[in-house]
Amino acid sequence: GCKRGEVSQPSWSDARLLGYHRRMKRVVFLLVVVAACSPSGRNQGDQPCTAGQQQCYGNQLQTCQNGVFTTEMDCPNACDDALGCVLCVPGTGTCSGNVSHACDANGMGYTDVTCDAVEGVTCGSAGVCEGDCAPQTLGQSYIGCEYYATVTGNIVGNEFDFAVALANTSSTPATVTIDGGALGSAMIANVAANTLLVQKLPWQQQLKLCNDSPTPEAPCSTPLTSVDVPGGGYHIRSTEPITVYQFNSLEYTVGNGDYSYTNDASLLEPTNVWRSNFYAASWAGIAGAYPSEVAITAAQPGTNVTITSTAATDPSSSVPAIAAGTPTTKTLGAGEVLELTSGAGDFTGTNVTSDLPIQVISGHVCTDVPTGIAACDHVEESMFAVDTLSETYIVNAPQVTSLPNGKVEVIRIIATAPNTTITYNPPQAGALTGLANAGDYLEIDNNAAER
């Protein structure tokens, strides 16, 4: 790959014929020249490198010194221009049927990834998944091709619907396959290009917890206790990247003026951005009526989940009691949902970790915010993992046109590391500025009665 007139590396027999002094000068000269020419045809002789720049010459890691590339070390396994010496080169792998044994993005190991034909993904010639829904194509955002929608406990009547909103912003129609949950067989939904489709789904009654049709003033007839439901999550797979929201419930009113009173929605994260360390945000349970709740969903079999709860859980026949502050581990299967409830406690600050990526949705069956302000409402939200969080946030209360003077605003800030310091702009009179432990939280409101 070198240009005419450049010198190639001498053989050992050639070097032996040179005098010691001449040989050393010749070898130094050759090292400089050869460092400027790589097997891929690179030539730094005409384009000097800059300090700190690096490249690979075969399995040699070279860095720029005095304007030319010089070999720094021989990599024992592989070399990547950006990462240096690695175990393997990202973007490479081997196929075993539809399973890619692919090099991780950091080049330090391999991950087995199923190239799902339902998502239009195949295992390509480079040994990695290929297609619009391949992990390396999707990147890291809330736009993806595989999701799990999870019903969370709600006292809303069964005449209202659980639903997902599927948004396809691509120029290609998306075929969406939904299975699991309360479906007896797979459901196919076709979402046209640049279109939103709202798909109603049957309630997963075990996860809904309350199967009466009560009002917020009339608690459910059965206790709302923790449940473990194998296959309880709705498995959603698309042939094109989509965004997904779940609605619990979808409607505010149906029929002849029936009102749900208690409904909420949550953005879902695709499985390719799921993580393994979360802190829950919730609200205190209303003993004997409506509990605080956390729903944990696994995407892979044999997922070990450890919960260090801030509240004692409500046990059931499928879920033993978990004591506050005692780490408890549970193994979940693909699509399995562990939904924890606490009628007497508050799951805010509960730490959920796992050895494989999971989804955590936390909230409340039906609560008052602030406490004692009627009437209660369902609360749920997907939790972002610790390694996706930031240190700076802007809080902006939504405007409610029918209430020009607004309502009481409540903000909770949860620490994910010990000795967390908080500053405010503008300053907040009386607000705490430090949290001692991970999972500790502070609360700010505007100290006004409801208006």
Descriptive notes:
- The structure is a single chain.
- This protein has 451 residues and is mainly β.
- It has helices at residues 12-16, 20-35, 135-138, 205-208; strands spanning 54-57, 60-65, 68-74, 78-80, 84-86, 93-96, 99-103, 110-114, 122-123, 129-130, 144-149, 162-168, 174-180, 187-191, 195-201, 227-229, 234-248, 253-254, 258-259, 264-267, 275-279, 292-298, 303-308, 328-332, 337-342, 351-367, 377-382, 410-414, 420-421, 434-435, 441-445.
- Strands 16, 21, 22, 23, 24, 25, 26 and 27 form an 8-stranded antiparallel β-sheet that branches.
- A hairpin with a 3-residue loop joins strand 4 (78-80) and strand 5 (84-86).
- The radius of gyration is 29 Å and the shape is globular.
- Mean pLDDT is 87; it is low at 1-46.
Rg of Cα set: 29 Å
Sequence stretches where pLDDT stays below 50 over 5 or more residues: 1-46
Helix fraction, binned, reads: under 10%
List how many beta strands DSSP finds. 31
Largest sheet composition: 8 strands, antiparallel
User: What separation lies between the terminal Cα atoms?
Assistant: 77 Å
- Tally of DSSP helical segments: 4
**What overall geometry do the principal axes of the alpha carbons give?**
globular
Q: Which band does the percent of strand residues land in?
A: 35-45%
Main structural class: mainly beta
Mean pLDDT: 87
What is the topology?
Blueprint: H1 12-16, H2 20-35, E1 54-57, E2 60-65, E3 68-74, E4 78-80, E5 84-86, E6 93-96, E7 99-103, E8 110-114, E9 122-123, E10 129-130, H3 135-138, E11 144-149, E12 162-168, E13 174-180, E14 187-191, E15 195-201, H4 205-208, E16 227-229, E17 234-248, E18 253-254, E19 258-259, E20 264-267, E21 275-279, E22 292-298, E23 303-308, E24 328-332, E25 337-342, E26 351-367, E27 377-382, E28 410-414, E29 420-421, E30 434-435, E31 441-445
Antiparallel strand pairs: 1-2, 2-3, 4-5, 6-7, 7-8, 9-10, 11-17, 12-15, 12-17, 13-14, 13-17, 16-25, 17-20, 18-19, 21-26, 22-25, 22-26, 23-24, 23-26, 26-27, 28-31, 29-30
